[in-house]
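In the previous lecture we treated proteins in isolation. Real proteins rarely work alone, and many bind small molecules. This record shows how such a complex is specified: first the sequence, then the SMILES for zinc ion.
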Amino acid sequence: MHSLPDFLAHYTACPDCDLLLHKAKAPAGYSVVCPRCRRIISRSTAASIAKVLALSIAGLLLYLPAMLLPLMTFKSFGFSGSANILESILNFYRNDYYFVALMVLLSAVVMPLILLATIFLLSWQLQRKKYPTYLAGLFRIHLHLEEWAMLEVYLIGILVTIIKMSPTSDIDYHSGIFCFSCLVLITLAISSIVDRDLFWQTIEDQSHEDEKETLSEQHHQGTASTAAEKGLVLCHICHKLSPTTLAGTGCPRCRTNLHMRKPHSVARTWALVITSAIFLAPANLLPIMEVDFLGVPSRSTILDGIIHFFQDGSYLIGLIIFTASILVPVFKIIGLVILLRATRPGHHHFLVQKAKLFRFIAFIGRWSMLDIFVIALLSVLVDYGFFTSIHTAPAATYFSFVVAATMFAAMTFDPRIIWDACYPDDTPQYQEQTATPLGKTL
Ligand SMILES: [Zn+2]
Ligand SMILES: [Zn+2]
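The predicted 3D structure, ligand included, written as tokens:
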């Protein structure tokens, strides 16, 4: 008979559907995928720690120039305006759009720095084989905050701004835009290279606590089941399995509170979805931007802006803004309602599709910030005195509420509840599963 730590070391559970899986190590460059809901369980990269260390050092070196150097200058009517990332945020603050300023500050400045600093410290310590006790907490913070850094969305915002203004202004590009683009590429590379399993395993091996319990026979039966049915609970941050007796206390590896399912997941998600649906109305009906042309102010809503792009023949930009600002929030709200309804017992159709829908919703949420980033840039760059200037209008605040609320809604929703609602009678009985290496990803 295996001891409990032995068993736990060889098993994991799918974070999205709770299926108990025999751990499989994929060859470098491959992913391991859950056979039931198709979620990627782990990714493997050769020399992950060293690569992450090198990239995070490069990222930290580029960080200050990327934030402080001017990105570009717009010139028109003999006036010119230039801006860096920080100024574009300060402008919201000066005009009393505090919540918008806070959202942009967090997503484009603060979170990216915290992510770079934590992953640098972590990979540096692991690389030199030092394991201070704070490493687990550090990695936990990193994973918690990951979704709130939106540098790549900001970069697309810069591109949209350039395309929008190029017909009417001369644009000079400065070194800031080069540093910022490199910083975006580096942060994207880091997030695809971090081998979470390896990082957690390395941290854990140094602080191993021996558990003396042994498993009862039921842990060794051949048919597969969920972790919950086997009396196990998966940590939603570090993905370590623990016995359910630990539920309600801290995960032995990363100290996150362990829950069988995220607490009050359905009720909280409903509350957030309804909140975002309510704010969606003023966000779309009120003006989001004001353009002063020769002293005459004209205010436009999100939809006005999109129609303007289409009339100008900038179909691609129109389509991008339409997707990010209107399609994504509406799709997220409808998708979450579908998922919430699927948590009721007896809703067992299209489970794999619903699991994919959940992952897609979690992935697209941050892209709705695009329009806010564009307005942040336009309002500092386009200030041609009496001729033209661009200001933020009230819908920006409501729109930021919608983005924040839908992102929190996706985070509080626990996709395992969908599978709980149907198991065990409705889904095919799975034989004991090994997470299978599938497809080269890098
Ligand atoms: Zn799964
Ligand atoms: Zn944990």
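Summary for your notes: The chain has 15 helices and 15 strands. Confidence is low (pLDDT under 50) at residues 209-222, 426-433, 437-442.
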